[in-house]
Design brief:
172 residues, mainly alpha
Length: 172
């Protein structure tokens, strides 16, 4: 009994009976269909806007948590940095400017968040409104923060900036 067509080789991606391309994939000789490449996002303006928006949200959240518990959570600066870097990366892609922008925004957001929290505590202590303490006595709040800041405060701000840089720099 003879066959006019040789038996299949067992490899569906091998050469077909006519010697051309894989069986069932006539458009890509020798290779199965490859997925389309992911589009490259490089929109630094959108990344900066997202980073600034994330910094504002993180500042307010950090300040509210610090003021509500009347305690400084330095390790939360790491989350602030990660949030800013993540937002900048997701919105702007791998633009080389975004990690540096995130590294500048992270310590600034932590600093303002700590000032908000300190203003909340002082407003409760002196039985006045938050806006009166924060806006009218901002110099006194800043001076009080400077007196209370220690090595840990600054080190968490630096590590938060490094995390923001690394998170904004990572690939999608």
């Amino acid at each position: 009994m003879s066959q006019s067509v040789p038996p299949p080789s067992g490899n569906p991606f091998g050469q077909g009976p006519d010697g051309q391309g894989p069986q069932g994939a006539p458009f890509a000789p020798g290779v199965p269909f490859a997925p389309a490449p992911m589009p490259v996002r490089r929109n630094p303006g959108l990344g900066i806007a997202a980073g600034v928006a994330a910094a504002l949200v993180a500042t307010i959240a950090y300040g509210l948590v610090t003021g509500s518990f009347e305690r400084d959570f330095g390790f939360a600066a790491l989350g602030v940095g990660a949030l800013i870097g993540f937002a900048a990366n997701k919105a702007g892609g791998r633009h080389p400017l975004l990690p540096f922008m995130a590294a500048v925004l992270a310590p600034a957001a932590v600093y303002l968040g700590q000032l908000i929290g300190l203003s909340m505590v002082l407003a409760e202590f002196f039985k006045v409104s938050f806006s009166e303490v924060f806006f009218e006595q901002f110099g006194a709040v800043r001076d009080a923060w400077s007196e209370e800041a220690d090595f840990g405060t600054y080190s968490y701000m630096i590590v938060g900036a490094l995390i923001a840089f690394g998170t904004a720099r990572r690939s999608d």
